[in-house]
Automatic annotation (TrEMBL):
It comes from Thermophilibacter provencensis. Keywords: ATP-binding, Nucleotide-binding. Residues 150-297 form the CobQ/CobB/MinD/ParA nucleotide binding domain. Pfam families: CbiA (PF01656). This is CobQ/CobB/MinD/ParA nucleotide binding domain-containing protein. It comes from the Bacteria.
Length: 420
């Protein structure tokens, strides 16, 4: 007999018990009295002692954030999120947050129920019922065919998020990958400007769609930015940004199915759209530039990400505009910042020339190997993809992952003259 710790609103207990009876065979369910109680009891148990089920809650932390936090704690045998009317976007977000299974309560038959034991762990009356044989074990979502999602964020403006995301998309395209750059700085994003990309990709237009946007509707928002690079977003009008917030998950889910790599540029603040992206991310890259306020902004972003349920092992730190003559500042990864497990990358300072080239739409040219800025972005990208097991079979990608330069160093001055 296996034991499950459960947290949900009282009105959802019966449905959740039925779901557990279908999911596992021969189980006992114990109700926690709150979010903290659930996490504490699971953490105090033996590793793998409890399965955890989180159902619809009437108040407090959102259900998916709680389930993701328990998954991130790492002591549960498995974590199940149960909701009514589950969408594909929710399943994708949950999978990327480390949640093992999402159950649609509206699809659970009436007969099977788990047994609820009264006792010190139980927050409500027992629900006696015969245990019904069910399928064995947990069916894990298959996301092996989806593209990795890399989300670039920071707690300050002007640190170079857009430059890094744009050039990384171009580098990936040069390696033969189909890259999609999603601009979730919905009000003031300018990622497409780095390519001089024409055409419209107004994410706010999704608000006119009845229900969940279909692939054809989302595909129309993909703008060709450069060879092998497509761009989506932001909103045409800053005042319409709020209309696009609910659709961020659907946009990223679509992009992850259609492309080989998804890079997400974000706003300085964590809007609902950025929070969805963070929870779906395979890697959340927090960018700093070493200026005054860097430590505090990194600390705020990392703390917020962890509260959203992002696993610490999915967080990376990127030190932009680094001086190759100086050592990496590992102080930013100290435990109180919440980045003790984060890998640190460095992108070398491209100085004013990089800004000039991006503002003139030359991101693809800037990504050519041989420039210190481009080479360090390539190394950062290749090593992340290697961690995820998605490094493409390409000589430049392999050299970048090894941290070796791909050729003679070049000067940006020639490109800068062409931009004028």
């Amino acid at each position: 007999m296996s034991t499950w710790m459960v947290y949900c609103a009282e009105k959802s207990r019966e449905a959740l018990l039925r779901a557990l009876g279908v999911i596992d065979e021969g189980i006992t369910a114990c109700f926690a009295n709150g979010c903290d109680d659930l996490r504490e009891r699971v953490a105090c148990g033996e590793p793998g002692e409890y399965g955890v089920a989180v159902g619809p809650a009437s108040e407090g932390v959102s259900d998916i954030n709680l389930a993701a936090a328990v998954a991130n704690d790492g002591n549960a045998r498995c974590v199940v999120l149960a909701q009514e009317g589950v969408s594909g976007s929710l399943r994708s977000r949950a999978a990327r947050a480390g949640i093992d299974l999402v159950v649609d309560l509206s699809e659970i038959p009436e007969e099977p129920r788990a047994r609820s034991e009264a006792g010190p762990l139980d927050g409500g009356p027992g629900v006696p019922a015969p245990l019904v044989p069910a399928r064995r074990g947990i069916e894990l979502p298959d996301i092996s065919q989806r593209a990795p999602i890399l989300v670039v964020c920071s707690g300050r403006g002007g640190v170079g998020k857009t430059a890094v995301a744009s050039v990384a998309a171009c580098v990936a395209a040069r390696w033969g990958m189909r890259a999609c750059l999603v601009d979730l700085d919905l009000s003031c994003g300018n990622a497409r400007g780095c390519f001089g990309a024409p055409g419209k990709s107004d994410l706010a237009s999704l608000a006119s769609v009845d229900g969940v946007p279909g692939d054809d509707q989302l595909r129309r928002l993909c703008v060709s930015a450069a060879p092998g690079v497509s761009a989506m977003g932001p909103c045409d009008l800053p005042e319409t940004a709020e209309l696009a917030l609910p659709y961020a998950g659907a946009v990223l889910d679509f992009a992850a199915r259609e492309y080989d790599l998804v890079l997400v540029d974000t706003s300085t603040t964590f809007t609902d759209a950025v929070a969805q992206a963070a929870q779906m991310a395979d890697r959340l890259v927090i960018v700093s530039d070493g200026k005054t306020g860097s430590i505090s902004s990194v600390a705020r972003m990392s703390g917020l990400a962890i509260r959203l349920g992002v696993a610490r092992t999915k967080v990376a730190r990127l030190e932009n505009r680094a001086d190759p003559r100086e050592k990496t500042n590992y102080a930013l990864g100290r435990a109180e910042v919440g980045l003790e497990a984060a890998r640190v990358f460095r992108v070398f300072d491209g100085r004013q020339e990089v800004g000039d080239l991006l503002s003139s739409g030359q991101a693809y040219d800037l990504a050519e190997p041989g420039y210190p800025f481009a080479d360090s972005v390539a190394t950062f990208l290749a090593q992340l993809l290697q961690e995820l097991g998605r490094l493409p079979e390409h000589d430049e990608a392999r050299r970048a992952a090894e941290g070796t330069r791909s050729g003679r160093l070049r000067s940006l001055f020639g490109l800068r003259r062409e931009a004028r």
